[in-house]
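To start, an entry.
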Amino acid sequence: MNFTIDKKELSALTTMVHRAASNKNTIPILSGMLLEVSHDHGLTMTATDMEIGIKASSKNIEIIEEGSVLVNAYYFADFIKLLPDTPISIQLDKETSKLNITYGRSSGSINTYAQQEYPALPINNMAHSFSISQDILKEALRKTSLAAAASHFRQVFTGVLFDLDNPEVLKVVASDTHRLAYFSHPMEQPTENPLRFIIPLRTVNELTRLLDDSSQKIDIAFTENNVIFYNDDFLLLSRLIEGQYPNYEQVIPPSFNTQTKIETKILIQSMERARTMPMDNKVKFQHFQLSFNGNEAIINAYSEIMGEIEEHIENMEIEGDADIKIAFNTNYFLDIVKLLASECSQISISFSGSLGPALIKNPEKEDYIYILVPLRTTN
């Protein structure tokens, strides 16, 4: 194998792919990244840890000799990132099994792995299911993944659900049982059959990193117990989380007693100050109490150790029962307010009582809601 490629092109491709490799030492070969050079596809890079796999190609190379090599993904990526912006020559020395990398008058060499046992991605028999714009999918994942659990004894809560029970509407949902994020989007081309699948949070993070903000389509296909997201630039394969996702729609209250609108920036500032109050020994996470007095909201954060903060937000809109006191996890509440701050100057909060779930959304949009379960605390 022998080829030349611009450093920026090589670095972009490597950055896209290498994170799918394993960073554990249990199976050393899975820490590798496969580089393949051919006249048909140019340079193709593949990495997988058997849970997730990423593959991407570039034809912007000068090929001297076709071939393939397996190198340590993370070391190769770190090294390439630090090279100067100049053409990079890469050649495999078959006698020493080293990959020689030349940049200007400098050079380096990297040990290679035996690639005979490197697993191929199971993509030969993948069946296309549907397509969606990259910007829509990226928005859906960004707005829902924050509600997924980092760990949970029910694994379905550590992923994001794609629900196409109605083939004409895609619903993307995540929940850790304390909060739920729900995004819906009408399908331009409905799927042939109802469909439901759950992807791990890690897959969400990697896919969000690869997607751009354009209306270019990305295709979704399935093979065995894997889902594949792909377009002309990259392919990402991920295992699916097995299990039945609970009926999330029953968490959404059918009606509300109180509706409010609050200035987003002012609410963020008040919440940030409230978050400086440390957690106490009774409740092991930061929390606050929200109440109303006339046309103002009162935010109270209390700590036995440090003291108390009381914030007043004036000139807000409130309809319905204003006699309500409700407590929330401060970080869960602030997550959604910051998320919506980029798209609306006011947020809408609807309450179903002091112990019932609250619904938070952009009052100008109907495609996204965030349900937050209150805390049972007297402070």
